[in-house]
Amino acid sequence: MIPVSTNVLDMKIKGLSCDPKEFHDQARHTRQLLQLFNWKQKHNTLPVLIVLMGGTGTGKSTLFNALVKKNKR
Length: 73
Known about the structure:
The chain crosses the membrane at residues 46-68. 48% of the residues lie in helices and 0% in strands.
């Protein structure tokens, strides 16, 4: 498991120039992604959810049938 370390995200790097708000927003988002990743690692027994989306006639059923190896008669 990858530990979530906020110390690394809070480091100030000399010479790094960017908008402080943008940097903090990105750091917050990265923290959230790390927390989500760690949660998913702990709960890896959850079933996989797959969603096939698309308009009429785009091949959703064909793709599903190919994935489950269902043959046409």
